[in-house]
Amino acid sequence: MEEASSSSDAAANNPSKFSSERYFETQSAPNNLDEEVERVREFVKFHVQSNPTKRIVLITSGGTTVPLEHNVVRFLDNFSAGTRGAASAEAFLRTNEYAVIFLHRSHSLEPFSRHYPHSTNPFLDLLAIQPSQQESSSSEHVPSTDQPLFPVLSPHPVQRQSDDQAHHVDQHQISIPIQHRPAMLSILKAHHLVHQLNLLHTISFVTVNEYLYLLRAVAKVLGEPSLGLGRRAMLYLAAAVSDFFIPQQKLSEHKIQSGKGSLVIEMDAVPKVLKDVTNEWSDQAFIVSFKLETDSSLLIPKAKAALTRYGHHLVIANELHTRKTSVLLIDREGQIEPIKMTILLVIMRLRNRWYIVWSIDISIGFVLLLHPLLDPPLVQLHLISHSLLTFIISVVT
């Protein structure tokens, strides 16, 4: 691997652990960062000014990549289709209490369109072509073997057509078989309504570097006192973030050649920024993280350790092989709530008992008033009660 030799790169080449501060000092920001930040700020301003009670949640979704070269040919990838993040975004939007900033891996699943992924429910398979009257009365035409089976395909709308082409296209109608229409119509209506009301703002990333810079920037916007969002902000960090990376100063400039045989790669630990999110970037927000393990015996201890180390509010923990049917909710008090599909109705009844009121007093600021029958852990869970319940529904369906 090529290594930079300039003195300015000495910090990045130091094998010691990267702190978040050191990371952002030594790794370059994405080119579009300023534009993305401004768009996020305008989105937040719009909702703060148009609805003083509207909550805004930042959802991160999908996996991050770690390039092995500057001119990227090879990279390491954290697997994640983004199902949980996209489903959760829909769930937050459905409550009519949240606007959503959706920070997602490019080409991963997104809200609404996730229902028609290319691999399991291809959109084209749901469409039918109604033949023209002439075709329906004649036998099906099959080109001879010396002709192309079909014309050259273009993904772009046809700008100019000959009279023959226009006549041919007009004779055909594209339809959706009746059994698919109810589901598709409900999804399409929701999609259009959300965009009409400006409730969903999407941002994409690919690399772990892009993710970290965008997360920091968006979290800081949500935490800006001048915007006045305060405790109505939430961060729901569902992305599958790489644990290791190669600093830009250590990357090979060009494609790593395979002629030398085996390849040894030395990687640095990606800085844990959750404490920065909690204590600095969005210190008023309610913050939820996720913990995935393959060893179930490590799941609860590591989730509790994360809450102690980073000081955020809730960990949604799951084991790899049961992640789509079962999760554990672990809060600051160490309360563990196993959530499975079979107890959804029980959870929904519990949700109706949660009660919290925020009031403003000029002399003391925000005062938290608790219902005397409720314990603090339940109050904490109330802050994301809607999202938790609908998230669980989304995960298991």
Automatic annotation (TrEMBL):
Gene3D superfamilies under this entry?
CoaB-like (3.40.50.10300)
Q: Name one Pfam family in it.
A: DFP
Q: Signal peptide position in this chain?
A: none
Q: Where is the DNA/pantothenate metabolism flavoprotein C-terminal domain?
A: 234-336
Q: Which domain of life is it from?
A: Eukaryota
Q: Which GO terms describe its molecular function?
A: catalytic activity
- Coiled-coil intervals: none
Q: Where is the composition biased (Low complexity)?
A: 1-12
Biological process GO annotation list?
A: coenzyme A biosynthetic process
Compositional bias segments (type: Basic and acidic residues):
161-170
Q: Where is this region: Disordered?
A: 1-30, 134-170
InterPro entries in alphabetical order: CoaB-like_sf, DNA/pantothenate-metab_flavo_C
Q: Which family does it belong to?
A: Belongs to the PPC synthetase family.
* Protein name (Swiss-Prot/TrEMBL): DNA/pantothenate metabolism flavoprotein C-terminal domain-containing protein
Protein's organism: Puccinia striiformis
